[in-house]
Here is the input.
Amino acid sequence: MTLVLSQLFTGISIGAVLLLIALGLSLTFGQMNVINMAHGELIMVGAYTVYVLQQVISGAGWSLLIALPVAFAVAGLIGVLLEVSLIRRLYLRPLDTLLVTWGVSLLLQQLARDVFGAPNVQTRAPEILTGSIRITDDLAISSSRVFILVLALAAVAAVTLVLRTTPLGRRIRAVVQNRDLAAVSGLATGRIDRLTFFIGSGLAGIAGVALTLIGPIGPAMGTNIIVNAFLVVVVGGIGQLKGTVIVAFVLGVLQSMVEYTTTTSVASVIVFVTIVAFLQWRPQGLFTLRTRSLA
Here is the structure.
């Protein structure tokens, strides 16, 4: 029983990481149909924000707390710059957004190598997050993983609150459901797109901060995780936040359970095959956007 609980929590912690990685992408991909391959590099920006702050702030705890809003703002502003300079002209050409943002991701990776060097670097975790929380005599859970889980749930709660209770959230949902109708109704869709891209990119920066707690960071870290982010968003349903949350945790638990009886590589293959089989059965994803359209 203890072993099952241990694997279950490991899966939940993997799901929390997947959720943080995919949360911002679910906004930008869902609303604007932009295949942003540079999303992983925005996560890298958040991770390097922690590294830079730790060079000027002595306390690891303070640097992590300060890095959360700073990484959100820095990654968000880079995302807005990307939207204004390039993506705005490609909204009706999603495949072109894939190619353009892939090029941007390569540029950002090279910029990181020029500034920070090619080797991976390690950040310091706050002392409070370096230990474990003991549940029973045989079961202990990592404090850093608990923090990431709480951070992921807080991010989901904040995004849900914005989308459901604020004027900006109502405008975002209107644009998602019918962009043309929202435009002729007087909504400034361009401004809403920029704000959405800022929020989605900022969430990627927060994900980067979280990833510094579980491993080293480097210029290519975004490339290793962007595919998983797209899989979570697509399987959950394009633009469906609840689908992203459910699928992230389901895939995390599935990965953990399969890894226990096989290896990490085999588990990844089995999870991928499961995703392909699911999309063959339900290509629109777990949830779909309900509209009044007759088409």
Summary: The radius of gyration is 19 Å. Residues 13-225 form one domain. Residues 47 and 208 are 4 Å apart (CA to CA). The first helix runs from residue 2 to 32.
